């Protein structure tokens, strides 16, 4: 049962465990936690256990990692005793459990043979080996790094607003010791979060990934209620406090909180978004100006993102960037390759902060068709990069046991993960940031089903002209690629050139845990690479031609 006896003022409820047996059964009695759809425990790895205990008597408790297998008794994977300590007051106990076996659906057991009453609170079990020691699974972070990300938008979109303001993300409630974070109900996606992944952790993750943080904050508006400009001042002040937490000196009020958490150096927070998909909400326009004017006066370098689009006319409000969310069926997303062709070149830049094919009949749980439509969109964003500054796919991750949205880029469970075709599609564009746009023109009887963009980029050894072409049709297409517009002293190095193709026989095919590499890019040599290269595009495919460039012999 639960009692309001915790030593943590923001989390007053603790678990009361009363043991009634004098001769308890083998294995003892107690409680267990299976984690989220089972804990992945691996042989030879260490797991750090933290918990708080209180009892008027001495305790004789055992912490164990156990595994229930079909047709067999509960298997003990690791255990450690907790005894001979005074816990008459709340006491923090820390243990490390070394696994002697592997189980994908393990659980944490706390058991005893001793009669009596004890209270338990804030029990946490974490792997000791996480990405840079900050709690994230290494293999999932490596998936992100493979995309060469330039920024991290957080903490989300609708999650920021809430269905009601009382359930919106409040950054101040997500910092400090994790034991003191009250958590909140995410009423848009219908789950409780303890906010262990909070504002500070997002800033730290951006730093660990080598990306710029982009903070989306609440504009005093939820899906169903809001405040007008006469009442928005506390929200504005909350944003200022959040900026001081991220950017302020270690001697400032909120910067000192950050320093106490272990990060005296400030974070390079220069991008903020005022709200999420709120442009048409009742109070957004007036609230936006309150935030914008105050931010620009105090932080002139801050880049402010508006929720209101400007792709076809005047925004009507000052902004550095405006937010564009692109969700639709596959054909519509493919055609949006030209969405920004006629966008005014003066005024705010474009931030496509969410895009995906999300109509169920086209997207499934992430298939080739969706990824090709999205690739076509990205070629359009790339060719319009003088006005489109940033873009990111959404959502990024989903737990396969609890899908709330389809599709997603990366799917995981407690021990497995894979990238959807949309994830692999993005690897074709990972060298685009900072690259030079190269003009490209397609002449074909199938041009209506094609999309293309080209860049020149450098790796550690070579320079490349990369031509990316999406064939969104059911016919194979013959093309000739002519490398024009290069310097007269430049030639194509056939030996170093290569071809990368994302395709499959069934355009609706997906990846899965059992077949994670069903639809993935295939890299091949390009033996006919030259200033004029003949190519065949597979039906329903994304093809990248990387023509290695070198100085012509005898040219200095």
Short description:
It catalyses: Hydrolysis of terminal non-reducing alpha-L-arabinofuranoside residues in alpha-L-arabinosides. Residues 353-541 form the Alpha-L-arabinofuranosidase C-terminal domain. The chain has ten helices and 30 strands.
| Number of extended strands | 30
Distance between the termini: 81 Å
Strand order of the largest sheet: 11-14-15-16-17-18-19
Shape: globular
Q: Supply the helix-strand structural class.
A: alpha+beta
Radius of gyration: 27 Å
The proportion of residues forming helix, as a percent range, comes to: 10-25%
Largest sheet: 7 strands, parallel
Strand percentage lies at 25-35%
Q: pLDDT average, as an integer?
A: 94
Unreliable spans are: none
- Note the total helix count: 10
Helix-strand layout with pairing:
Elements: E1 2-3, E2 14-19, E3 29-33, E4 39-41, E5 46-54, E6 60-67, E7 75-83, E8 91-98, E9 103-112, E10 116-127, H1 138-145, E11 151-154, H2 158-161, E12 184-186, E13 191-193, H3 199-209, E14 212-217, H4 233-247, H5 253-260, E15 271-274, H6 284-298, E16 303-306, E17 321-328, H7 330-335, E18 349-357, H8 360-363, H9 368-383, E19 388-391, E20 397-399, E21 410-412, E22 417-419, H10 421-426, E23 436-438, E24 450-458, E25 463-471, E26 477-482, E27 490-503, E28 522-525, E29 532-537, E30 541-551
Parallel strand pairs: 11-14, 14-15, 15-16, 16-17, 17-18, 18-19, 20-21
Antiparallel strand pairs: 1-2, 2-10, 3-9, 4-9, 5-8, 5-10, 6-7, 6-9, 12-13, 21-22, 23-24, 24-25, 25-30, 26-29, 27-28, 27-30
Helix pairs in contact: 4-5
